[in-house]
Specification:
364 residues; 6-stranded antiparallel β-sheet; 6 helices; 22 strands; 26% helix
Length: 364
């Protein structure tokens, strides 16, 4: 018993240490941008979810983050291939997408009793805003808006160091590794959405689910920026909802696990939140999940391509003991019926033997 208690205590301590480690480990990057806290603070992104709408000319990305840590402020930067329009997203969007893509529920029967069924039932049951830089700095401020908890600046830059200077001038520590990671975007003349995040309540920390942010820009192909995520120090997960005329999937895993399709189908009558993003016309929804156990291996952005419009929906089975009538287990009837037949057979054999024995004893 003492050994059991010792193992339980060790497990609890290990879990607490893991949780504390996640709070202090810096997460400079998330799925499609860089999350940069103040120097003495830490922020981690538990999960990033993004909805991507592409109509052949314009791409709209709606992002939702769940964060933890002790940061009262943070900066976030996302490269985009064209001039961006930024506004707050609809928090109901992801709930609606989850409902559209939820797994199909099916019952699946089994014959023999399992743990939790009589007679193996144990009685417990199942658990079920800063000033813009001056001229000649290498950074141009296209626009500056305050959107709820976000201070949004749309930027152009001629070199990565200029972006670093802009962030530092606005009071945020920029990891040196980020400067090099921005270079491919600068070379392709992309623009940037830089965001200051701060709770509206003074002195509060950034924690939990943040208000979604909606970013739209012109793009000749659907692309989801991921290259900056190579700076993350912990494994990353990405949930991507792609809304387009056809089913779309990434061209390659870009250094992560193979993207898993959890839903693909045609949405005939989108709800209000989805229709606000796609219009009232039917649209194809593809839901993707991907893990990046080693973020440093990420070597590109996600370029999405059209694939065959094969529908797919996950199926979740609920296993139920096969019963008839008022819930009588079929196995019990089968076994009981078999035993009854065996008893009847044994009685019949016994009677037959008794009759034969009686015939032998009777006089001729």
């Amino acid at each position: 018993m003492r050994g059991t208690h010792s193992r339980i205590l060790t497990t609890i301590v290990a879990l607490l240490a893991l949780q504390l480690g996640s709070l202090v480990a810096p997460a400079y990057a998330c799925g499609c941008g860089a999350m940069i806290p103040d120097k003495a603070e830490r922020i981690g992104v538990d999960r990033e979810e993004s909805a991507v709408r592409w109509d052949g000319r314009t791409e709209t990305v709606v992002m939702r983050f769940a964060v933890h840590g002790n940061a009262r402020r943070a900066a976030w930067i996302m490269p985009v291939p064209g001039r961006a329009d930024v506004r707050l997203g609809d928090p109901a969007l992801f709930d609606e997408l989850d409902r559209l893509a939820e797994p199909e529920q099916r019952d699946r029967s089994y014959f023999w009793p399992r743990e939790g069924d009589w007679p193996f039932d144990d009685g417990y049951g199942d658990g079920a805003a800063a000033a813009p830089p001056g001229a000649g700095s290498g950074v141009g401020v296209v626009g500056r808006e305050r959107l709820g908890p976000f201070d949004v600046a749309r930027l152009t830059a001629t070199d990565p160091e200029a972006l670093g200077d802009w962030l530092r001038a606005n009071g945020f520590e920029l990891p040196e590794r980020l400067t090099g990671a921005l270079r491919p975007y600068v070379e392709r003349k992309w623009e940037y959405v830089a965001v200051r995040l701060a709770p509206q309540e003074k002195g509060a920390t950034l924690y939990g689910e943040l208000t979604p942010l909606r970013i739209a820009f012109a793009s000749s192909e659907p692309v989801y920026p991921m290259r900056l995520s190579r700076l993350a120090r912990t494994p990353q997960t990405l949930g991507l909802y792609v809304l387009a005329d056809h089913r779309m999937e990434p061209r390659s895993p870009i250094g992560g696990d193979r993207p898993e399709v959890t839903f693909a189908g045609r949405i005939e009558h989108p709800g209000a939140a989805v229709a606000d993003l796609t219009g009232d016309a039917p649209v194809r929804l593809t839901v993707l999940e991907q893990r990046f156990p080693h973020p440093e291996r990420i070597d590109d952005d996600h370029h999405l391509r059209t694939v065959a419009d094969t529908p797919y929906r996950e199926v979740e089975y609920t296993d139920r003991l096969l019963t008839v009538g008022g819930g009588i287990p079929v196995w019990l009837l089968t076994v009981g019926g078999g035993l009854l037949l065996a008893v009847l057979f044994a009685v019949r054999v016994t009677r037959r033997r008794s009759r034969k024995a009686a015939g032998v004893r009777s006089p001729a």
